[in-house]
């Protein structure tokens, strides 16, 4: 996201360590989740005379502001996300309001884009084995199901081989885009474990709105909880079961496609949707082609499924996996 959004690197991949800002996002996730519906409380906390070193929200705002200031000083060789935002001109006449908006954009780009690919790799269990723990909500859950059921790996490898996809020059983002079973694994992981399980907040429209005979006055904060809706038996048969085939050969298991909206919908839909899909296709396919994925000793996935928390985004519990390199 450093390259895509700000024309620079955060050096996380080079160092193999999580950036402190990402750690700060995770550490502050609990209060954000608890206070998300009470924005006035958040505003009060921001304005309290607490040293910045003790106030994670202030640290996040200051760092985001610095990102904008640094980005304004140069023009990258290739356009990035901020190129389009800055070229659009001012949104507010008030310079302070404009600065706050840009700072919020920077913070959103980092949170939405960077907290999806953190990797921790170490040798364990076997001389050629590698342990990988990923912070990405969808990738983590997809890999849980892959490790739990070897048949998923077999079916996915068969699909990749049928399309002549190996880890060579034929392996491209475009070549992965329309593989039915690969996309089905991703969609089913997104359905059961949406990255924003409680949904995003919206205001009810002018004049209010009636939903199932319930009138909601205008200006009320409302949300549609993705976790609940995407597991509704009204929308999906066997709603709590991981069945990738519901997106391919068993469409009767999807009773209402409109209930699937992990990236939200309409004008407020996530602009990073295609980037996220491309990333997930690439990572899952690469790992499956090169490794056999197994639970580590003593792991059964119960921590991940039972202890993961909703902090607006998902506060993932641990999942230890062994990746055994496939022999040629």
Tell me what you see in this structure.
The structure is a single chain. This protein is of the alpha+beta class and 328 residues long. The protein folds into two domains: 2-114, no CATH class; 119-325, Cytochrome p450 (Orthogonal Bundle). Helix content is 45%, strand content 11%. It is built from 15 helices and ten strands. The chain has helices at 2-6, 12-15, 20-27, 29-35, 39-47, 56-71, 81-87, 95-114, 137-148, 150-162, 173-176, 180-192, 226-229, 273-290, 302-307; strands spanning 119-123, 129-134, 202-203, 209-211, 214-216, 221-222, 291-295, 309-311, 313-315, 321-325. Strands 1-2-10-7 form a four-stranded antiparallel β-sheet. It has a two-stranded antiparallel sheet with strand order 3-6. Strand 1 (119-123) and strand 2 form a beta hairpin. Helix 9 (137-148) packs across helix 12 (180-192). It starts with a helix and ends with a strand.
Question: What are the key terms here?
Answer:
single chain; alpha+beta; Cytochrome p450; 2 domains; two-stranded antiparallel ribbon; globular
Average pLDDT over all residues: 85
- CATH architecture classification name of the largest domain: Orthogonal Bundle
Sheet with most strands: strand arrangement = 1-2-10-7
Question: In angstroms, what separates the terminal alpha carbons?
Answer: 34 Å
Strand content: 5-15%
Radius of gyration: 21 Å
Tally of structural domains: 2
**Largest sheet at a glance?**
4 strands, antiparallel
Tell me the name of the CATH class of the largest domain.
Mainly Alpha
N-to-C SSE string, H for helix and E for strand: HHHHHHHHEEHHHHEEEEHHEHEEE
Oligomer: single chain
């Amino acid at each position: 996201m450093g390259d895509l959004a700000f024309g620079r690197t955060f050096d996380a991949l080079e160092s193999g360590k999580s950036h402190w800002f990402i750690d700060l996002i995770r550490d502050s996730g609990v209060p954000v989740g608890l206070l998300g519906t009470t924005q006035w409380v958040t505003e009060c906390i921001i304005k309290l005379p607490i040293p910045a070193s003790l106030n994670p929200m202030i640290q996040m705002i200051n760092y985001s502001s610095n990102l904008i200031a640094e980005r304004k000083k140069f023009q990258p060789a290739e356009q990035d996300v901020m190129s389009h935002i800055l070229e659009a001109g001012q949104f507010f006449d008030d310079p302070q309001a404009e600065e706050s908006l840009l700072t919020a954009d920077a913070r959103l780009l980092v949170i939405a884009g960077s907290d999806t690919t953190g990797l921790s790799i170490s040798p364990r269990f076997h001389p050629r084995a590698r342990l990988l723990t990923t912070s990405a909500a969808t990738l983590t859950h997809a890999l849980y199901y892959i490790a739990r059921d070897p048949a998923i790996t077999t079916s996915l490898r068969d699909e990749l081989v049928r399309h002549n996809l190996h880890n060579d020059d034929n392996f491209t983002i475009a070549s992965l885009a329309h593989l039915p079973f690969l996309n089905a694994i991703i969609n089913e992981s997104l359905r059961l474990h949406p990255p924003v399980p409680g949904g995003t907040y919206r205001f009810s429209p002018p004049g209010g709105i009636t939903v199932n005979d319930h009138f909601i006055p205008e200006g009320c904060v409302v949300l549609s909880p993705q976790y609940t809706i995407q597991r509704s038996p009204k929308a999906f048969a066997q709603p709590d079961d991981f069945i990738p085939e519901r997106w391919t050969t068993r469409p009767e298991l999807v009773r209402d496609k409109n209930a699937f909206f992990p990236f939200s919908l309409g004008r407020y839909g996530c602009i990073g949707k295609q980037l996220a899909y491309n990333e997930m296709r690439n990572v899952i396919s690469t790992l499956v082609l090169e490794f056999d994925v197994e639970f580590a000793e003593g792991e059964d996935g119960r921590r991940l499924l039972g202890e993961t928390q909703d902090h607006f985004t998902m506060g993932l519990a641990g999942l230890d996996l062994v990746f055994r390199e496939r022999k040629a």
